[in-house]
Amino acid sequence: MRLALQALVGQRRGLVILALPVLLVVLSGVLRVLTGEPVSADAVIVEVGIALVVPLVALLAANGVLGPEIDDGSVVYLLSTPVSRYAVAASKYAAAAGVATVAAVGGLLGASVAGGLSDRWVIVSLVTGGAATLLYTALFTALSAATRHGMIAGLLYVLVVEQLLGRFLSGLRYVSVRSIAERLGEAAADVDLPVADLTVAYAVVAALVLLVVGVAAAGWRLSRFQLRGDE
Questions:
Q1: What pLDDT sits at residue 229?
Q2: What is the Cα–Cα distance from 108 to 104, expressed in whole angstroms?
Q3: Is 143 helix (H, G, I), strand (E, B) or coil?
Q4: Cβ pair 108, 91 in contact under 8 A
Q5: What are the CA-CA distances from residue 121 to residues 32, 44, 54, 59, 184 (Å)?
Q6: Run of H or E residues at 83
């Protein structure tokens, strides 16, 4: 976990992770100043914050704790220690999720306050932002362990599956991290988000399954990790 934290907060990647939530807060504050009234929560918090900032922060964090070590081959030294590969994956996930949650949720909360939104949107920021960050990080940690192109795979999921196809294929909401997290936030804060037909029970179960499967898949991949000849 210490190595993972150093890889995140001690590198330029940490500045990028922090910059995205800061830009969200600045955007919210500027819009409020220009319009003289509270910002649109759907536009700023949902469509920009939850739909873009949260997954990008989680993607950067998840790929920052495991991807570079796999790319340069230094992960073999970590895997040579007598530590369970699943424990390694869980520790990497914990570090990435911790950093990403602080950054993403902090940005959503700051944007809610700067934009003059009600307390209900503060709850949405905490519940939906926190849940989405934890789930995205689990998914992206598994992808970064499974492929060298984890960043590209994560971007394809966010931009193509959730942003593009999700607008036309309503059934994708059942496998959408954003929809699951928004359903949890909707139930907690009593706000109207576009996922009313997902049950709370399904959202809770799906979230728990994704967390467990994501970390377990990363551990399984690490347990079978081998350097090929040209690496």
A1: 45
A2: 6
A3: helix
A4: no
A5: 16, 11, 15, 24, 13
A6: none
pTM metric for this prediction:
0.89
**Per-residue pLDDT at 226:** 60
Helix, strand, coil percentages (3-state) for the chain, rounded to 5, are 80, 0, 20
Distance (Å, rounded) from C-alpha 180 to C-alpha 178?
6
Q: Which residues contact 171 (CB under 8 A, 6 or more apart)?
A: none
Angle value at C-alpha 77, between 56 and 140, nearest 5 degrees: 20
Q: Tokens 């059942």: give the residue.
A: 174
- 8-state DSSP, 103: H
Cα gap 24→47, rounded to integer Å: 11
Dump pLDDT digits (tens) for 71-88: 656 666 776 777 788 888
Which DSSP string corresponds to 44-96? IIIIIIIIIIHHHHHHHHHHHHHHHHHHHSTHHHHHTSSS-HHHHHHHHHHHH
Please state the domain extents for the chain: 2-223
Beta strands in 69-208, from DSSP E residues, in sequence order: none
Rg (CA), the chain: 18
45 Cβ partners below 8 Å, 6+ apart?
A: 108, 111, 112, 115, 117, 121, 124, 125
